[in-house]
């Protein structure tokens, strides 16, 4: 039920934000498409923790500024690598082990790695990740433990971060 | 200054087209097309501001959605040479987890 | 207090167009830098890193600049939607391309590339 209400709220906010009109015709069209979407979501059986992840919105909002800071820091490194007169990079492949348990937390962790320039998740299998990094010294497995811990706490809650 | 930003983005798009043409592997081309799509989204938004009609942002949203789907579709097609296979079935190391 | 608030609002109205267009220009230059990286880097996997500059910082800075210049809240909502879409789909697309290349057997260059040493050994 909570997932249903969360999806409903998100869809209403999306419709209002996209249209911005409040005439009866457009609101009626909005209600029709909303009902259709809800029926489809129910029939597809995607109203679960992954389909409507609005319960963890607060945890993710705490994680987001830290992720942005990391992205800015990593951007600086890659911009310098792009603009150097002589190419000086040391690409590497690293194997990681994550402490995230749920699929959603793993996706958050892998997406955070891919979002920070300089590191890309190549493959994810169970709790093992294969990461391609632009600089060997910056992408040792220890460099990712804090991101791993924070994304596990943001999505899985406090108990998982121990 | 917004017009200058638009021109800079168009310059980047031209460079990416060169990479799309000379890219040694298929994946270089897909990467360049994907990046080209992101730049197209940004250029559409900036074009709306330059012309004084920010309604262009609707088209930009649509393009952002289509760009992602087209990247996945191209990759899927060149992996299986067909659109008739389910996306979740994978050979190789990933295994059938679902 | 309300006087100060009105002053601040007036200052914001005055400064938001120049600041917004300057941010747009900075973001566009970041995009061009990412593209230069895509042209220069020697290998598909390293080009991926350069392309992600465009997807993250370039797009974010340009969208913030456009939000500063926005005439109404509706435009800001649409810009937020674009940001959210790019934020969710660009890592997924990058991961899809890289994973397809890795599954197809494209080997990355490993080790220091540049003037110091040119040992390009096959990857594991």
In short:
Chain A has 162 residues and is mainly alpha-helical. Chain A has helices at 2-19, 24-44, 57-83, 103-115, 145-156, and strands at residues 92-97, 119-125, 128-133.
Explain how this protein is built.
The complex is a heterotrimer of chains A (162), B (98) and C (124). Chain A is 56% helix and 12% strand. Chain A has helices spanning 2-19, 24-44, 57-83, 103-115, 145-156; strands at 92-97, 119-125, 128-133. Chain A has a 3-stranded antiparallel beta sheet with strand order 1-3-2, covered by helices on one side. In chain A, helix 3 (57-83) packs antiparallel against helix 5 (145-156) and helix 4 packs across helix 5. Chain A is elongated and about 60 Å long. Chain B has one domain (2-83). Chain B has helices at 2-22, 26-50, 57-80. The termini of chain C are far apart. The model of chain C is unreliable at 117-124 (pLDDT under 50). Chains B and C meet through helix 1, helix 2 and helix 3 of B and helix 1, helix 2 and helix 3 of C.
Unreliable sequence segments of chain B: 92-98
Form type of chain B: flat
Q: Give me the Rg of chain C, rounded.
A: 21 Å
Total domain units of chain B: 1
The CA-CA distance between the termini of chain C, in Å, is 66 Å
> Per the principal axes of the C-alpha atoms, what is the gross shape of chain C?
elongated
Largest sheet of chain C: none
End-to-end separation of chain B in angstroms reads 51 Å
Main beta-sheet annotation of chain B: none
Number of strands of chain B: 0
Helix content of chain B: over 70%
Transmembrane segments (chain C): 20-39, 60-87
InterPro entries (chain C): PhaG_MnhG_YufB (IPR005133)
Organism (chain C): Hyphomonas oceanitis SCH89
Protein name (chain C): MnhG/PhaG family monovalent cation/proton antiporter
């Amino acid at each position: 039920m909570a997932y249903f209400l969360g999806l409903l709220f998100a869809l209403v906010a999306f419709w209002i934000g996209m249209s911005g009109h409040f005439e009866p015709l457009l609101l009626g069209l909005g209600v029709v498409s909303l009902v259709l979407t809800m029926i489809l979501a129910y029939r597809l059986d995607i109203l679960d923790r992954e389909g409507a992840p609005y319960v963890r919105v607060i945890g993710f909002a705490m994680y987001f500024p830290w992720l942005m800071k990391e992205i800015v820091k990593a951007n600086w490194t890659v911009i310098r690598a792009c603009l150097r007169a002589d190419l000086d990079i040391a690409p590497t492949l690293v194997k990681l082990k994550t402490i995230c348990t749920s699929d959603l937390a793993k996706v958050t962790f892998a997406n955070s790695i891919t979002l920070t320039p300089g590191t890309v998740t190549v493959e994810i299998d169970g709790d093992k990740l294969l990461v391609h990094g632009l600089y060997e010294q910056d992408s040792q497995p220890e460099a990712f433990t804090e991101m791993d811990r924070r994304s596990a706490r943001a999505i899985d809650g406090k108990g998982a971060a121990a | 200054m917004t017009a200058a930003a638009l021109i800079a983005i168009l310059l980047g798009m031209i460079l990416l087209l060169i990479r799309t043409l000379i890219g040694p592997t298929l994946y270089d081309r897909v990467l360049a097309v994907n990046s080209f799509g992101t730049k197209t989204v940004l250029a559409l938004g900036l074009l709306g501001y330059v012309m004084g009609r920010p309604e262009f942002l609707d088209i930009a949203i649509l393009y952002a959605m289509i760009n992602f789907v087209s990247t996945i579709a191209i990759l899927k097609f060149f992996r299986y040479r067909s659109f008739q296979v389910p996306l979740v079935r994978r050979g190789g190391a990933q295994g059938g987890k679902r | 207090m309300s006087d100060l608030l009105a002053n601040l609002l007036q200052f914001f109205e005055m400064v938001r167009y120049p600041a917004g267009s300057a941010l747009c220009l900075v973001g566009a230059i970041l995009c061009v830098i990412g593209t230069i990286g895509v042209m220069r880097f020697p290998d598909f996997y390293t080009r991926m890193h350069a392309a992600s500059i465009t997807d993250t910082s370039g797009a974010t800075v340009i969208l913030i600049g456009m939000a500063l210049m926005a005439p109404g809240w509706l435009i800001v909502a649409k810009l937020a939607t674009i940001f959210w879409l790019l934020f969710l789909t660009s890592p997924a697309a990058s991961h899809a391309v890289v994973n397809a290349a890795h599954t197809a057997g494209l080997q990355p260059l490993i080790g220091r590339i540049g003037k110091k040493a040119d040992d390009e050994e096959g990857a594991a």
